Amino acid sequence: MSIMNKKVLFLVLSATLLSFSNNSYADSCSETGLIEVNGHGQVEAIPDLAVLSYIAKNEEKNAKDAREKTEKQITKLYESAQKSGLKKEHIVSSTISLYPRYSYTNEGKRVFEGYVATRDITFKVADFSLIEKLTTAAVDAGITEINGFEYTIKDTKKLEEEANQKAINDAKNKASVLAKGFGVKIKKACSLKFTNSNNVSPYRLQSRMAKVATLAVANDENDSNTEYSPEKVTISSDVYASFAIKD
Fold first, then answer.
1. pLDDT, tens digit, for every residue of 182-222?
2. N or C: which end of the chain has fewer CB within 10 A?
3. How many beta carbons lie within 10 A of that of residue 34, not counting itself?
4. Do 146 and 168 belong together in one domain?
5. pLDDT of the residue at 19
6. Mean pLDDT in the chain?
7. Residue 84's domain is classified under what CATH number?
8. Strand partners for 73
9. Total tally of structural domains belonging to the chain
10. Whether 83 and 148 share a structural domain
11. Are residues 135 and 123 in the same domain?
């Protein structure tokens, strides 16, 4: 027999044995019946990180003016953030975007309005007292748009593992209750499937930005110590399990 034929024969035998093994496993799980349950587990935690993103946007007749004004605003906010104690690795700024803007008359004629320059900057903040300072600094720099703001958790791995274990225990308990109620005994789990989800509610900062801008214009500093209290983050896990019933 040639080497090629031996390889083909080996592959065929391997596939046959694997198929037989899988079928035997499936038969052993289904021939005496199954108990199928859904186990749920969840843990709650206080967020330890806030991600804030501001956007500088300016329109000028001259492209250079629009770009320079936008760059100046981002630079000013960047420097203010560093003075507040934020490290470089916690600040990310995108490249600038520049495009022409047109309007249209009632007759459908296109009219050039100017060049729009935009650039956003994102901060990862562990000290929530900096949120107010950064928001005020953004307004002082001429930025009044928030591109995103959410609370999150730096490392969710441990919490996910805890939620998974709770889901497993819940599935086992449900299977045991069902088995006891119907007077049967269960053996191994035939199939398992996990699904995880993190429930994080983004904090709405748009109204806050508008309020800070109004205060800045009025030169009122009585509201400079607003507290930001994030809601708890819920990390949940669901396991779908099938248990074989003993003979």
1. 888 888 787 778 777 766 544 444 444 544 444 444 444 44
2. N
3. 17
4. no
5. 33
6. 79
7. 3.30.70.2970
8. none
9. 2
10. yes
11. yes
Contact 234, 42 (CB under 8 A): yes
- The structure's pTM equals 0.65
CA distance to 123, 174, 230, per residue, from 198 (Å): 21, 24, 15
65, 69, 61: which is closest to 119 by C-alpha? 69
Question: Residue 40 sits in a domain of what CATH number?
Answer: 3.30.110.170
Give phi and psi for 221, each to the nearest 5.
-110, 20
Residues with Cβ within 8 Å of residue 171, at least 6 apart in sequence: 37, 38, 39, 239, 241
Q: Do 60 and 137 reside in the same domain of the chain?
A: yes
Do the Cβ atoms of 73 and 140 come closer than 8 Å?
Answer: no
Q: What percent of the chain has pLDDT over 90?
A: 49
